[in-house]
Amino acid sequence: MPLRRSGPARRSRHFLAGTFVSLFTVLVLPLTLPGAAGASDAGKRPAHPEQDWMGSTIAAHEGGDRAGGGEPTGGSEQRGGRPTVSGVDVSSHNGKIGWPGLRDAGMKFAYVKATEGTNYRNPYFRQQYKGAFEARLIHGAYHFALPDHSSGAVQARFFATHGGAWSHDGRTLPGALDLEYNPYGSTCYGKSHPEMTDWIADFARTYRAKTGRDVVIYTSTNWWKRCTGNSARFGTSNPLWIPHYGGSLGALPAGWKFHSIWQHTSSGPGIGDRNRFNGSFSRLMVLANGG
Question: Annotated region Disordered: where (predicted)?
Fold first, then answer.
């Protein structure tokens, strides 16, 4: 019977193998990890997500009266002969919300920031989102897009999993995709017009597959022109939420014949930004119910 070798020669082979593995780990893996991280968004955490709320970069880049347009006196009012419905959008920088007070001030719907990029979740989301529902507001969630961090599909799945899902309960609005100036660098996140429209389409397609609803697109006309080349690709499928601070709405991005929501202030009055739904409360309910 052959004898097993357990002496110095056997230990030397183990030592050499271990040394090789250690050297491989030290010398090779650090060279490959950064590329992998870039592909998966690992380690790409937003520096100040609590400062990135819906419209936080619009006034800074486009100007306008942040409190323009006045404050509706009730949940529904007439503007230009058409009914409008008042709403509010909030994020973590608003902290805990006194929703009954906002309801009594006339707010009928609310959007709450849920996520940003692929790894930030609003720490106040549960209180804000559930609180709006319990105060009998029609509620929805929104995602602050960072198109240079990952694919649109990855961010859509993250959003839908962490607050952006839709329920057919008559009280939940489809999720919204917040597209605005990059708070961390290049205005258009380093993307060409075709790359940006493809990113948005990737998000929209994935969100619809996950929830059964077309995502609402929040964007300004100026940003849309600059970063998508004024694409008309989404106007027939995705409701438009447009920010414009002042007494008039202004021009719409290409492809949309009308807007669904107008963010007419970015500084209250009171808590959150103020919005008007373009229609009656019954039409808002149609949007919540899948229309």
Answer: 60-93
Q: How far apart are CA 107 and CA 127, in angstroms?
A: 17
Q: How far apart are CA 167 and CA 140, in angstroms?
A: 10
Taking the C-alpha atoms of residue 239 and residue 176, their distance in angstroms, rounded to an integer, is 9
What is the tally of structural domains in the chain? Answer: 2
Residue with tokens 């955490």: 45
Q: Give, in order, the Cα–Cα distances in Å from 141 to each of 83, 115, 167, 173, 254.
A: 24, 9, 12, 8, 25
Whole-number percent of the chain with pLDDT over 70: 78
Which residues of the chain fall short of a pLDDT of 50?
A: 1-42, 68-81
Q: Are residues 17 and 152 in the same domain?
A: no
Q: What are the pLDDT digits (tens) for 136-152?
A: 999 999 999 999 999 99
Could you identify the residue written with the tokens 């486009």?
62
Query: Catalytic amino acids?
Result: 89, 178, 180
Inside any domain, residue 44: no
